[in-house]
Specification:
- The complex is a heterodimer.
- Chain A is mostly helical.
- Chain A is built from 3 helices and no strands.
- Helices cover 49% and strands 0% of the residues of chain A.
- Chain B has 2 domains: 167 residues, Thiolase/Chalcone synthase (Peroxisomal Thiolase, Chain A, domain 1, 3-Layer(aba) Sandwich), CATH 3.40.47; 148 residues, 3-Layer(aba) Sandwich (Peroxisomal Thiolase, Chain A, domain 1), CATH 3.40.47.10.
- Chain B is 30% helix and 22% strand.
- In chain B, the strands form 4 sheets. Chain B has a 5-stranded mixed β-sheet, with helices on both faces. In chain B, strands 8-13-12-11 form a 4-stranded mixed β-sheet, with helices on both faces. A two-stranded antiparallel ribbon of chain B has the order 2-3.
- In chain B, α3 crosses α4.
- Chain B is globular.
- Classes of the chains: A mainly alpha, B alpha/beta.
- The interface between A and B is medium-sized, with 12 and 13 residues.
- Chain A: InterPro entries: ACP, ACP-like_sf, PP-bd_ACP.
Chain lengths: 77, 325
């Protein structure tokens, strides 16, 4: 079975520093696990490379779920 | 024809403002600012005018070059925060130095020093000047919204100058680009009091606003693109460049560029901890720091990359050389 968008996004988020051991669910707040705005932009840029999509530079997902939905929304276009 | 940098100089205001001091009136902390930006303190003008700082930096550059102000054929100043809307900051410098040459400003925000260097190169290359003073003078403290914790903690004031003379190998590469996006980083001009103007009041006059995410992304993407293009066009591998002097907007941007390009961090200047982002003065301030620390040896390759409002990005590759005879 192909890896879900959720799994792929979580893997990218975990590549950000210090998130290896953190369990991420859809409801996880990005700021609460230490992902600040610049780390979020880094993750957004990594998702663009991974999925071949273009994300609004000012997009500001607050949770893992919002992040996954942002990517999924663009993948369905 | 080309040019050689034959002297450097810089000047900072005396007053240092620490992160803790900012935390006293902003909802922020030393830890927050340090980990997100790499900045610990910045210099902020209290009694110094920008004219004074620019003059001081210029005298030091002339002194280190062994050039007299009367020998200058051109003064180009990069600034967006001058003491005067007119005349140019460069004119104030000319007056204070007693120079009698054309003097004007270049406005290209944080990329301004590389733009100004390229302008001066044009005058030297066309034989219109043999010796030029190129400086950046920035009093960023005057364009801050001091209630905006996301921007006012980032900037500081400084002036820095170089003396360039015709002749030499530099630049081995130079490219200026603009990817127009005014709203990403904007300081609206003087509001004025014209009774006829109906456009006033749309934004606070003369206070900086920044779309941080867009700017971060632009910076990392375009600086990487510039350096890759420089490598490809010159055939000089990035591994052979001795010093990378990138605009010092944020330590995290520099780190991201280092990581993406696999650069040796010891060859990449990081000098914003004690001065913050001093806009276009970052690059010449860093050059002066390297020169005065004896870290610039003859024959070394120095890459400069400016980026900022515009959105502008500018890169150049210099060969550090002795003064042309």
């Amino acid at each position: 079975m192909a890896e879900s968008t959720f799994d792929r996004v979580v893997s990218i988020l975990k590549d950000q520093e210090g998130l290896d051991d953190v369990e991420l669910t859809r409801d996880t707040n990005l700021a609460s696990v230490g992902l600040d705005s610049m780390a979020t932009v880094e993750a957004v840029m990594a998702c663009e490379d991974e999925f071949g999509i273009e994300i609004d530079p000012e997009a500001n997902p607050q949770t893992v779920g919002e992040f996954v939905d942002l990517v999924d929304g663009l993948l369905q276009k | 024809m080309a040019y050689t940098i034959v002297g450097t100089g810089s000047a900072l205001p005396a007053r240092s403002v620490t992160n803790d001091e900012l935390s006293a009136f902003l909802d922020t902390s030393d830890e927050w600012i340090r980990t997100r930006t790499g900045i610990r303190e910045r210099r902020v003008s209290t009694t110094e005018s920008l004219d004074q700082l620019a003059e001081e930096a210029s005298w030091r550059a002339l002194e280190s070059a062994g050039v007299d102000a009367s020998q200058l054929d051109l003064i180009v100043c990069s600034t967006t925060t001058g003491d005067h809307l007119m005349p140019a900051e460069a004119c104030a410098v000319a007056e204070r130095l007693g120079a009698a040459c054309p003097a004007f400003d270049v406005s290209a925000a944080c990329s301004g020093f590389v733009f100004a260097l390229d302008v001066a190169d044009g005058y030297l290359s066309r034989g219109r000047a043999a010796t030029a003073l190129v400086l950046s003078a920035e009093k960023c403290s005057r364009i801050m919204d001091w209630a905006d914790r996301s921007t006012c903690v980032l900037f500081g004031d400084a002036a820095a100058a170089v003396v360039v003379r015709a002749g030499g190998e530099s630049p081995l590469w130079c490219r200026l680009r603009t990817i127009p996006n005014v709203a990403a980083l904007d300081v609206p001009g003087v509001a004025g009091t014209s009774p006829f103007d109906t456009t006033a009041g749309t934004a606070p006059a003369s206070a900086l606003s920044m779309r941080g995410r867009s700017v971060y992304r632009f910076a990392v993407t375009e600086v990487v693109r510039e350096l890759r293009q420089m490598e490809q066009a010159t055939g000089i591998p990035l591994g052979q460049v001795d010093h990378f002097v990138l605009h010092q907007a944020n330590e995290r941007i520099v780190d991201a560029v280092v990581e993406r390009l696999g650069l040796d961090p010891s060859r990449v200047v990081l000098n914003l901890a004690h001065t913050g982002n001093v806009s276009s003065a970052c690059i010449p301030l860093a050059l002066d720091g390297l020169a005065r620390a004896g870290k610039l040896a003859e024959g070394q390759l120095v890459a400069l990359v400016g980026f900022g409002a515009g959105l502008d990005v500018a890169s150049t590759l210099l060969r550090w050389e002795a003064a042309p005879s």
